[in-house]
Amino acid sequence: MGQINIAGQMIDINDEGYLTDAKQWNQDVASELAKEEGIDLTDTHMELIKFLRENFESGSELTIRKVGKSGIVDIKGFYQLFPKKPLKLASRISGIPKPTSCI
Amino acid sequence: MKVTDDKPVKAKENEDLALKKVCIICAKGAIEDVYASLVMANGAVMEGIEASLFFTFFGLDAITKKRMNKLHTGTLGNPAMRMPGGVPFPSLLGLLPGVEAGVSTMMMKQMEALDIPPVDEFLDMITAGGGEVYACKLGTDMFKLKKEDLCDHVKDIITIGQFYELAAGDRTQIIFT
Predict the structure, then answer these.
(1) pLDDT in tens, B143-154
(2) Which of A78, B52, B117, B170 has a beta carbon 3.0–4.6 Å from B121's, enabling a disulfide?
(3) Structural domain tally of chain A?
């Protein structure tokens, strides 16, 4: 457990860098976390982040297949937007917990 | 609670030790064998690990157009098989016509409920993430399969020598399911 200072706000994060309270998230937090990963957030990124947060709030388990069926981006596009570890990276930037599904 | 300005991303420290590549061999064509390979390959690309899938012998069913979405699980000789509710599955029941197909359909339904896709869609997901799919030269010769019998995900038909070339480099693991 630790805290980071983003845009003057103290954010609680865990050892792996995921927010521990999704309510502390805002767009500045997303931009800052994305910047750390070398990503400039576009409108498509933001649309996906919104989708991921809504999925989290609905309590359903997140899978990469769900993202592919979101209608926002296909799976190939998802890998381009959030390179290497798309689901983990996107979850971290979206301020939601690390994905627990195997898919 | 500790207050720190450092990025407490422990995972980053371990990045130099992380797996770089997995080469997965699928030699069997039952649902559980094929899906073990697919889940591992997809899981690898989602972690930023390069993945090559090598299908050989009966595993070739998983990349043969006509068969890939009709895989079965064996109902004979599987002591772990259970009826719904957990009662042991009587071995002789597995002999009856249609039982294997029924059990297989049920398995696929259960997996769909967990958002696990059919074989062709799973291969789409793996290749979308940069994973590569290969067929075994010896296996395809033996089963008289040509490139056009195999699904479009298959990058090439290769020999075991070429497979080992793919596996070259440190931090590579070869996994045989």
Answers:
(1) 999 999 999 999
(2) B117
(3) 1
